[in-house]
Amino acid sequence: MIPARKNCAHCGRWLYSFLNFYVAERDDDGNPVRVGSWCKQCNREAVRVRNGRRRRGARYNPQRKLTPEQSRKRRNDRHKRRKTAQRKGDPLVPLWPLAAWLKERVAESNKRRIALRADIDDSELERLLNQVVINGKTGRIERQMDIYLSKVERILIRFEEPLLSVYPDDLFPWLYEGRRPRKRPRKARRAA
């Protein structure tokens, strides 16, 4: 006697015996006596993998395990390639003017609407807003990050806002003249 339903031994799903399992054994009259332990879907997937194919028809290529050093090197190389490919000649600008401008927009509306209009994720908007840390007592910027100019322009274009209104030319003349600001030399340490 074959039960009406049973669990697949591979995926554990509770399925109908005659619909979802292949017949494993038949009697002399051809009637099913026993069904297989794996469902039809799991059997098909196992056959595909055995034949060198993956579920969606791609070639099955089991990856070898990498050592932590190899995976770290691969990740660093991939990161460097991506950074250089994306940002050739794209200058970095301070984030604080954009963050202040975005905070004004969020005060007028909500974060979800601003993120949708700027065409960025909610988490990315949250990250942009929280990158600038201002001291509550002194009002000075304690920590700030830089952002690529192309990203700033992409956000401002979505809001139809000119770059000059967020990054004024009296504070950022190098941005409009096309030259980078020179870094100040470090002060020489005094020998004690």
Q: Order of strands in the sheet with the most strands?
A: 1-2
Q: What's the shape?
A: elongated
| Total number of beta strands | 8
Q: Can you give the mean pLDDT? A: 78
Binned strand content: 15-25%
Tally the helices: what do you get? 9
Q: What would you report as the Rg, rounded to the nearest angstrom?
A: 31 Å
- Give the H and E element order: EEHEEHHEHHHEEEHHH
Helix content: 40-55%
Looking at the overall shape, the CATH architecture of the domain at 92-177 is Orthogonal Bundle
Uncertain residue ranges? 188-192
Q: Gap between N and C termini, in Å?
A: 94 Å
| Secondary structure category | alpha+beta
How would you describe this protein?
With 192 residues, this protein is α+β, with helices and mostly antiparallel strands. Among the domains are: 5-50, no CATH class; 92-177, 434 Repressor (Amino-terminal Domain). It has helices spanning 17-20, 40-50, 68-86, 96-108, 111-118, 122-130, 149-158, 163-166, 173-177; strands at residues 5-7, 14-16, 21-26, 32-39, 92-94, 133-134, 141-143, 146-148. A hairpin with a 6-residue loop joins strand 1 and strand 2 (14-16). Helix 5 (111-118) packs across helix 6. It is elongated.
Structure summarized in a few sentences:
Helices cover 43% and strands 16% of the residues.
